[in-house]
Amino acid sequence: MNSGHLFLLFFLLPCVTVEAGFFDFFESYFDGFKDTNKTYIDDLRHFNSNELKKDLRKFLYGQHIAMKTIQNALSSFMEDSNPNKPLVLSFHGPPGVGKSYVTKIIARNIYKNGEKSKHVHTFKADYWFQHKDMTRIYQTQLREWIHGNVSGFPRSMFIFDEVNKMNPELIDTIKPFLEYNHQLDGVSFNNAIFIFISNSEMRTINKLTLDFWKEGRDREEIQMTSSGLETQISQNIYNDKNGGFWHSSLIDQHLIDHFIPFLPLELKHVRQCVLSEMAHLNMTEDFDLADKVARDMPFFPPEEKIFAVKGCKSVRQKLVLYADD
Ligand SMILES: Nc1ncnc2c1ncn2[C@@H]1O[C@H](COP(=O)(O)OP(=O)(O)O)[C@@H](O)[C@H]1O
Ligand SMILES: [Mg+2]
Fold first, then answer.
1. Residue 123: which residues within 8 A CB-CB, separation 6 or more?
2. Among candidates 237, 254, 238, 274, which has minimal Cα distance to 93?
3. Dist. CA 310 → ligand 2 center (Å)
4. Sorting pLDDT into bands at 50, 70 and 90, what band is 32?
5. Residues 275/290, Cβ–Cβ less than 8 Å
6. Beta strands 193-198 and 157-161: pairing type?
7. How far is the CA of 64 from the centre of ligand 1 (A)?
8. Is a pLDDT exceeding 60 seen at residue 281?
9. Confidence band (pLDDT; 50, 70, 90) for 245?
10. Neighbours of 153 (CB within 10 A)
11. Are 306 and 299 in contact (CB under 8 A)?
12. Segments in 166-311 forming alpha helices (H)
């Protein structure tokens, strides 16, 4: 444990509550530094691009752009023995459509312990960084956390959820880690993975998807380049004064490799989610019940009722209610 870790411990102690799993939190952190080589390498899987493809195809519904972009970006990054920068992805879209879920698919294709791996670090903005007046402290903690973990294990993954609620100064703190061939105190960050998740840009994405539907076009025809989707997303985020990326040098300096839109889900996708929950709950597959549960979810726009308001969120809870009938 170096002085940085002691510093981190000193500042984090008052902020971490018992509910947050205080002991787990520190145990896992400091255990990780005890036996660097063994603990870390044991958790790394041999990455197989075909397995990732199969996993995404089988378990991620209705997200053809995310599926393809993640497949290509992650595969080329993982297969590159000498990447020149960390992989930086930014997920956007409405709630309940698979943004957090896909990080679990990514994690299980990299680490044996999947999302539970010690090397997967998830930060939820309104939980971890809730006090505005503590930004300076958070900045120091975050810097130490990323540096400490990557120096112990280069293939670390950092997920920043609800990034639109994050203070821009905090996001700028992450910037040095994302740069091309950057070394901080002799540590390279080129093998790490950073994922930013937000609901921002859901209006742009919903509108485009609805326009395609109204024109009678197949949703799969929507591409990153459709109506300049990727450019629109990055520009809108940049100009959004309330979003965490505002004026952020991450966008200025093109440090985000891909802005990935997640589309609103349709009835057929929600039905797939219900079937997958049935399997998860060891229930007998029942297409009629899946249809019933899916149809009872709220849809928008009010007249056409095409897209699920909550995506696949709360599908399991709804299913359990019907299953009891
Ligand atoms: N596209 C999808 N394919 C398969 N399951 C999904 C999809 N979207 C959501 N789900 C299901 O709904 C749950 C909630 O989705 P989540 O990824 O947490 O939403 P968000 O996009 O808001 O992060 C997931 O855990 C998963 O079970
Ligand atoms: Mg989420």
1. 129, 142, 158, 159, 160, 161
2. 237
3. 11
4. very low
5. yes
6. parallel
7. 14
8. yes
9. low
10. 23
11. yes
12. 168-178, 202-214, 229-239, 249-252, 267-280, 287-295
CA–chain centroid gap for 111, Å, is 16
C-alpha to C-alpha distance for 310 and 314, rounded to whole angstroms: 8
Q: Which residues pair with 198 in a beta bridge?
A: 92
The response to whether residue 176 sits with its C-beta less than 6 Å from ligand 1 reads no
- The secondary structure element, H or E, covering residue 121 is strand 120-124
Q: Does residue 86 come out as left (phi exceeding 0), alpha (psi in the -120 to 50 range) or beta? A: beta
| Residues with Cβ–ion distance below 5 A, ligand 2 | 100
- Cβ of 66 closer than 6 Å to ligand 1, yes or no, is no
Distance (Å, whole) CA 43 – CA 152: 13
How far, in Å, is the centroid of ligand 2 from the Cα of 198? 8
Which residues are registered as beta bridge partners of 195? 89, 159
Residue 231, token pair as written in the block: 């450019």
Task: Enter the tokens of residue 84.
Answer: 């020149």
Among 120, 207, 197, which residue's Cα sits nearest to residue 157?
A: 120
- 37 Cα to the center of ligand 2, angstroms: 32
Give 146-204 pLDDT, tens digit per residue: 999 999 999 999 999 988 888 878 888 898 999 887 787 889 999 999 999 998 788 88
The structure tokens listed for 323 are 């299953």
Q: Are 142 and 173 in contact (CB under 8 A)?
A: yes
**Which ligand ends up closest to the CA of 63?**
1
pTM of the model: 0.86
Cα 170 to the center of its chain, rounded Å? 18
What's the N-to-C CA distance of the chain in angstroms? 56
